[in-house]
Amino acid sequence: MATNEKKPHAVLVPFPAQGHVTPMMKLAKVLHRKGFHVTFVNTEYNQRRLVRSRGPGAVAGLLGFRFATIPDGIPTSDADADADATQDPPSLCYYTMTTCLPHLKNLLRDLNGAVGAPPVSCVVGDGVMSFCMDTAAELGVPCALFWTASACGFMGYRNFRFLLDEGLTPLKDEEQMKNGYLDTPVTQARGMSKHMRLRDFSSFVRTTDRSDILFNFLLHEVEQSDRATAIILNTIDELEQTALDAMRAILPLPVYTIGPLNSLTEQLATKGRCLLASWRL
Predict the structure, then answer these.
(1) Per DSSP, what are the bridge partners of residue 43?
(2) What does 152-185 look like in DSSP terms, one character per residue?
(3) Residue 126 is a catalytic residue
(4) pLDDT per residue over 168-203, tens digit each?
(5) Which residue of the set 9, 20, 32, 103 is catalytic?
(6) Catalytic pick from 9, 72, 103, 126?
(7) Torsional sign, CA 236, 123, 60, 30
(8) Which residues 6+ apart lie within 8 Å of 88 measured at CB?
(9) Which of 37, 45, 189, 208 lies at a C-alpha separation of 20 to 30 Å from 119?
């Protein structure tokens, strides 16, 4: 067993929403069980919510696994600083994209100077936290992006530019939401079924505003993925072969399927219990 100072050190940075944090935590547990020193980065807001919900022990960490925080950048007043509510998605997208980079850079510098912990050797950023690649590049370490959506979901976002170029989005007016326009066939979308209709894409394409925050956030993030060292997906090849083939044809980098994470974490937990039982015998 390697000493803690000699372990590879992975810093995991999820987008601060439950559907992103949960699978990233599962990946963190797998890496930790495989011998990595892990730093899991929450936003300060989510860390406070977690402590209020489960107590300080929830973020105490353990040997080789620690929690760290950065601010999400969303302005707060004294009245709502301790609120326990889901944050506004457009605000969360805008402020993480525009304010988190310097905070993560400072955190990585602090981690590299921490006593008793190995230097950072890689960053695993959420697929929609592309600024993680900039911090990793400055540090000279690789950065993999973990897309918590399916491969099909990734390709749906990747086709946003195609939908724009074809004039299919943004919608001309609200009437197109209900007059059958959303049933328009979209047969040329790359990596998607030839039976796709406009309504089958993410609801973010149903905007009438070209400046829509959520649409532009996802368009920006999915197009930044080309800069990653690798893409990680919580899926299997047999389930999404067409979409994965399209991803691998488009992206100039490895695409790894590591799913299903639920099953993998359960296997590791079972293996751990078996080893403990054997040791007791």
Answers:
(1) 70
(2) HHHHHHHTHHHHHHTT-SS-SSGGGGTSSGGG-B
(3) yes
(4) 999 999 999 999 999 999 999 999 999 999 999 999
(5) 20
(6) 126
(7) positive
(8) 74
(9) 45
